[in-house]
Amino acid sequence: MSTITFTDEDLLLGSKPHNRLLFVAGYVREQKVNRILINGGSAVNILPLRILKELEIPIDELSNSRLMIQCFNQGGQRVVGIIRMQLTMQDMVSSALFHVIDAKTSYNMLLGRPWLHENAVVPSTWHQCFKYCRNGIVKKMLGDNKPFIEAEPPFADAKYYIEDANKGKKILPPEEPKSCNNQNTRKNDSSTLEPESLKSLILPLTQINMKQPSNPPLKGFVPSTQEEEGGHEALAIDEKGFDPKAFKLLIKAGYDPKKTQP
């Protein structure tokens, strides 16, 4: 008689602590079914009604059953019917009697103690695999490492798989806008220009000639240049030649007509 044992080499996730259930994948009527839950705490094998429809199995194939399945919330779930189906997982071919229920579950199939004992299967949620013996040879079936996808409705059990998958993803830094890169490139290019190339950018200065006004100046108005060059000599004009308004402005500015110019 063969002995079934589990060692550290059987650990699917290594020594990392986890709280995962044991899900496997298989084929029923040549259609792949994932999230097959291996649960030694269940007294029956369970098949949700939605999976029965996805497999295109008519309700007429179900046998009658009056079984009431008790759930964790102490509520009862009436069985729609029972059906026996062949299940293939790698090179393991077996059959299981399923109780069909109309309920929303995180698993697509549940294989309980009836299937485990009929096939002498020993599961290990810690090692994430199960082992069985065929013709004196111990064989191993690994658990499904990615039974859930993010697009599916959220389940409490899914977080133990999706979170671990996201931890391995590398978060890339956001890309800089192209406009900033272009500006940096222009700055770098301008700093590398040599002085010889800058000479071509220098333009000659154009001399600006100041034109004297063509209109004659107002009576009594003395330009600043004339005031600097001639001092107060330009103000020594006979009082009768001044405009009255201009004369008053000169008086306010401090001009004294009584003083004689040297």
TrEMBL record:
Instruction: Name the source's superkingdom.
Output: Eukaryota
Q: Where is this region: Disordered?
A: 171-196, 209-231
Check the record and name the SUPFAM superfamilies matching this protein. Answer: Acid proteases
CDD domains in UniProt: retropepsin_like
Q: Where is the composition biased (Polar residues)?
A: 179-194
Q: Which InterPro entries match?
A: Peptidase_aspartic_dom_sf (IPR021109)
Q: Which PANTHER family match?
A: GAG-PRO-LIKE PROTEIN, OS08G0508500 PROTEIN
Protein name stated in the entry: Uncharacterized protein
